[in-house]
Design brief:
Elements: H1 10-32, H2 44-50, H3 70-86, H4 98-109, H5 118-133, H6 138-149, E1 170-171, E2 175-177, E3 183-187, E4 196-202, E5 210-211, E6 219-221, E7 225-230, E8 239-248, E9 257-266, H7 276-280, E10 311-316, E11 321-325, E12 340-346, E13 352-359
Parallel strand pairs: 2-9
Antiparallel strand pairs: 1-3, 3-7, 4-6, 4-8, 5-7, 8-9, 10-11, 10-12, 12-13
Helix pairs in contact: 1-3, 3-4, 3-6, 4-5, 5-6
């Protein structure tokens, strides 16, 4: 840590202590294969004595006047990292994960002078997050709101120390194992206490899904989180459902906002049937089996004549989408430039079955 931050001034020492705890906690988590947020001594009693618990530190405000000891005040920096990593739905802080949080913090250190203050680290983390992920990203909002929560103003708070997001977002995993059958999704945009939420679940058997709060049909009224506790049994996997979140009266006014998120339900143990269409999609060993019915088709691709797919997209060498449809019948290959094309085939759930490079002859 001495490479980036000196251990000299009062505020500078506190920053040094907090960052050292963050790095120490991460290294320990790699050896433990999990992160309990207790750095050094995993005994909670001892951790409390030596102030090494980043999750529930004795001091969570960096500017607490009564805390003059550098390590004590530095605990708030470790707490900021915990908040960004794990998130806090009640405070509108999205979880971005320990590794990503640490990566942003470490990259921020490269822009600081050795006598940097916590305020300068705050500004650097927001700058890195905005440059890499955008102003409306989870990464940016997580750091902005976490810094505000540990009493280091970002200059962007609109009301009561809250950094307001532009629109509602859904935070949580994109996929879940069907064996587990549980997943938690939350609103991660800052909203007012008067904002009302409605969750809609779209897709096969979504009326059979069970949530902690309870569904009426395929909708849940209320709750800033959707806690799914049970999925129905499907005939094959993977399955894809869409979660929609409607926020009524977003940011304390009449404006409404809607967000959506696709969730893939996977068979992680591999003991259930796979998508039957995907199973029939095979690449043959034959050469020059044409993809087109026309005999003079200038493209050739090694595909089984009986290949089954629901959608095909065709891209040029620069990644531009030049065609999409249920088949290739309406694709005017004579108009395309010579060179490489990429055919991507999808099943009815939008899962990629195969991608093939094809050269115009």
């Amino acid at each position: 840590m001495n490479k980036f931050i000196d251990y000299k001034s009062w505020g500078n020492r506190a920053l040094h202590e907090g960052l050292s705890d963050i790095i120490g906690n991460y290294i320990e988590s790699l050896f433990q294969k999990n992160n309990d947020w207790i750095m050094g001594d995993d005994n909670p009693v001892n951790a409390a004595v030596y102030d090494r618990d980043l999750k529930t530190p004795a001091v969570n405000c960096f500017t607490t006047p009564s805390e003059s000891q550098p390590h004590r005040r530095g605990l708030a920096i470790g707490y900021m990292h915990y908040l960004v990593s794990e998130g806090n739905s009640a405070k509108g802080i999205p979880a971005i994960g320990t590794k990503k949080s640490l990566d942003i913090i470490l990259e921020s250190l490269t822009f600081l002078k050795k006598d940097a203050t916590a305020k300068e680290l705050m500004e650097a983390t927001l700058s890195v997050a905005e440059k890499k992920f955008g102003r409306c990203s989870n990464e940016y909002l997580a750091f902005a709101r976490a810094w505000e929560l540990i009493c280091i103003p970002t200059g962007q708070a609109k009301e009561n120390g809250k950094v307001v997001g532009y629109y509602v977002k859904i935070c949580g995993q994109d996929e879940v194992c069907e064996e587990l059958g549980q997943i938690n999704l939350c609103s991660c945009s800052q909203v007012y206490t008067t904002t009302k939420f409605r969750w809609n679940l779209l897709g096969d058997k979504t009326t059979e899904i069970k949530t902690k709060k309870g569904l009426v049909g395929n909708s849940q009224d209320g709750g800033d989180c959707l806690n799914i506790i049970s999925f129905p049994k499907y005939s094959y996997y993977p399955q894809t459902i869409t979660i929609e979140l409607l926020a009524l009266g977003l940011n304390g006014n009449v404006k409404n906002s809607i967000a959506s998120k696709k969730i893939t339900i996977k068979d992680c143990s591999g003991n259930d049937p796979k998508n039957p269409c995907a199973a029939e999609f095979k690449i043959s060993d034959k050469i020059n089996d044409t993809l087109f019915d026309k005999k003079d088709a200038p493209y050739s691709i090694n595909l089984n004549k009986d290949v089954l797919f629901s959608k095909v997209k065709i891209y040029d060498l620069m990644g531009k989408l030049i065609y999409q449809g249920a088949n290739t019948d309406n694709f005017d290959y004579n108009r395309e430039a010579n060179g490489l094309l990429i055919f991507v085939f999808y099943d009815e759930n939008g899962i990629v079955l195969e991608a093939k490079k094809v050269y115009k002859q």
